[in-house]
Specification:
By secondary structure, this protein is mainly alpha-helical. The chain has 10 helices and 2 strands; from the N terminus they run αααββααααααα. The protein has a two-stranded antiparallel ribbon. Helix 5 crosses helix 7 and helix 9 runs antiparallel to helix 10.
Length: about 240
């Protein structure tokens, strides 16, 4: 018998729960195909329209991906989905670049605290290589390497939730860092490079307090310049 979802009943909650249970039992994993619409209809008892709406919602959330000829696959694109949410909030003036920078600051401090406990040699080597390249380039290349440096710190935390949040913010952060660097004075640019070096050296020494202080100083410079950029745009308007 086909059930109809009541107003308060969210079909996708039940579809997600069913798929989660399949993942727990090892019947599906990331990259594998989830049950078809027909199979979900038979198992859960909802109409085709309700199942399709649930799957569409899950795709928007970054949980599944529809591929031509393969059906719906279980994926982890939640970071990309969250990035879209943050971009929408920005466009609707429900947040701003300074708030995003503040959130990124908290993520990176948390990631540093985790990374400093057990930083692997190969990860430190990668961080060192990024830093050396960053110190020898300018402009667009420096922006890209700056992003890689911060992404590497978060990766070294081995915390998947921090990585998802960082992924959601990283692309947006890169855009306004690129814009901000056009107006940043040379002294601040050089100070940022030195603070990156300080973060690396403190991580290498497993120095928690000095490492966190370097991250704070880094974001203080970022926030100051973002504020100046925002004020200059208001003046133009």
């Amino acid at each position: 018998m086909v059930r109809k979802a009541s107003e308060n009943e969210k079909v996708y909650y039940q579809v997600i729960e069913h798929i989660t249970n399949l993942a727990k039992t090892g019947e599906i994993s990331f990259g594998s195909k989830i049950p078809s619409e027909r199979e979900l209809m038979a198992t859960l008892g909802f109409s085709r329209n309700s199942i399709r709406e649930a799957l569409r919602t899950m795709e928007n959330m970054g949980i599944i991906e529809s591929r031509q000829g393969q059906g719906n696959l279980l994926v982890n694109h939640i970071g990309e989905s969250l990035s879209g949410v943050f971009s929408m909030l920005l466009s609707m003036n429900q947040t701003n670049y300074i708030e995003i920078s503040q959130l990124r600051r908290f993520i990176e401090i948390g990631a540093y605290l985790l990374a400093v406990k057990d930083a692997k040699e190969e990860d430190m080597e990668t961080l060192s290589e990024i830093l050396e390249e960053m110190e020898n380039v300018k402009g667009e290349e420096r922006v890209k390497l700056d992003k890689r440096f911060h992404d590497q710190i978060v990766k070294m935390s081995n915390n998947h939730l921090l990585e998802i949040l960082n992924e959601a913010l990283s692309g947006i952060f890169e855009i306004f860092i690129r814009e901000m660097l056009k107006y940043m004075v040379v002294e601040d640019k050089e100070e940022l490079i030195q603070l990156h070096r300080n973060v690396y050296e403190n991580l290498k020494r497993q120095d928690v307090s000095e490492g966190i202080e370097s991250i704070r100083e880094h974001y203080n410079i970022i926030d100051k310049n973002l504020q100046m950029l925002a004020e200059s745009r208001l003046c133009v308007l």
